[in-house]
Design a protein that fits this description.
It is globular and about 55 Å long. By secondary structure, it is mainly α. The protein starts with a helix and ends with a helix. It is built from 16 helices and no strands.
Length: 399
């Protein structure tokens, strides 16, 4: 199997195994009599585990570890979800750590296709996976909340099969270096990341956007299902709809890339996320909230692709996996902060009949946070133009 086709297949399955359970996760926790604050703090455990292990696992990640840990966390949650919730969250976080950065690094090193094509296609495929998960996850959950977890395990098994039999490494010696070498990679990667201002600023942007997305991701289910006054099935249709919107966002990045710089595209993505999340929070009837939320999801579909292209153009193969893991770790920190803050704001929301004002406040707050990166990107653009101008003058003088 060609590397890019394997990459697309694994991307689909990886996204499927997490999204099939995520479609109704918050509704499941609310049904277990947890408040939104308690649900958020449970997710904080998940993201803290990612933050703590992200960089070390980025240096040692192989093609099996993430999938095995994902299987283990699904089995634990199926067995005793009310008892083992925090253990499950920790295992899931470790699985994400082992997975993040390693697949991206592998495809960049093993495929001859342009990064713009690889990442826009991969993200579009993931969003198609999200479309399927939205419909299937909500359908299965109407019978039993455990069924989506069974579907997740099946997708993990398929993913392990593909990786074991088809994924070949060109740089296998580099991936199996000693502990001393791993420490060197981590140290050098952190140094490179912080010496390059453009990369460092994008890391900080990830902090703000992750903070912003925390409320949008966590509160979408109770907000939209509560406003619609329908059953769980409506969330399946909504998730399918915004998965298509995220696919459109990924497609827009490819189209905009022909006319605008990667910095400008990142700015547009942050603007879409911030402005439309604020509007989704300001409205309080179903259809206006749904419409603005779907446009917000177009921006969410643009952002990860634009950031992937920006970062991968500026880092070398040797440190790619660990730098991408460093970026992911910083993003998880933003998510944790966002979950804690919005959890406190929404602590009085305990069921679908509760007043939605706390969620509205959280969405408006997070939308405003998402607009801050635009100013950082303006700084990056200005510095880049000055550097290019200086290089042009130096070239003319040499001539």
């Amino acid at each position: 199997m060609k590397p890019h086709k394997l990459f697309y297949s694994v991307s689909f399955l990886q996204f499927f195994m997490s999204e099939i359970t995520g479609s109704t996760l918050i509704l499941f926790l609310l049904a277990k009599r947890l408040s939104l604050q308690s649900a958020n703090f449970l997710l904080v455990v998940f993201f803290v585990s990612i933050f703590l292990f992200e960089i070390p696992t980025g240096a040692i990640a192989d093609k099996y570890g993430a999938l095995l840990f994902s299987s283990l966390q699904c089995i634990v949650c199926l067995d005793r979800p009310h008892v083992a919730a925090y253990v499950c969250a920790s295992l899931w976080g470790l699985a994400i750590c082992l997975q993040s950065g390693s697949l991206e690094s592998w495809i960049v090193e093993n495929s001859d296709k342009p990064m713009e094509v690889l990442f826009t296609t991969s993200n579009s495929i993931q969003y198609i996976s999200g479309f399927i998960c939205g419909l299937l996850g909500a359908f299965l959950a109407t019978f039993n909340y455990s069924l989506p977890w069974v579907a997740s395990i099946v997708s993990i098994i398929l993913c392990i099969f593909l990786c074991c039999f088809y994924m070949k490494e060109k740089n296998i010696t580099h991936r199996k270096t000693s502990a001393t070498r791993i420490k060197t990679i981590i140290g050098e990667s952190v140094r490179i990341g912080f010496e390059n201002k453009s990369i460092w600023i994008v890391f900080i942007i990830g902090l703000f956007i992750s903070f912003s997305n925390s409320a949008g991701n966590t509160f979408q289910q109770p907000r939209l299902v509560g406003l619609s006054e329908q059953g769980i099935w409506i969330m399946g249709l909504i998730k399918a709809g915004y998965s298509l919107c995220m696919t459109l966002g990924s497609y827009l990045v490819r189209k905009l890339g022909a006319r605008y710089s990667d910095v400008h595209i990142l700015m547009y993505a942050c603007g879409m996320i911030g402005i439309w999340l604020i509007l989704a929070g300001a409205f309080n009837t179903f259809y206006p909230v749904l419409l603005t939320f779907l446009i917000y999801e177009i921006g969410r579909g643009m952002y990860p692709v634009a950031k992937q292209i920006f970062l991968n153009k500026r880092i070398s193969n040797e440190y790619r996996s660990t730098l991408l893991s460093l970026d992911s770790a910083i993003s998880q920190l933003g998510t944790c902060i966002g979950l804690i803050v919005t959890g406190i704001v929404s602590r009085n929301f305990t069921n679908l009949a509760s007043d939605q004002t706390p969620i509205q406040i959280s969405w408006v707050l997070c939308g405003g946070i998402a607009l801050i990166p635009i100013f950082l990107l303006l700084y990056v653009h200005r510095v880049s133009r000055k550097n290019n101008s200086w290089k042009e003058k130096a070239t003319k003088q040499n001539v």
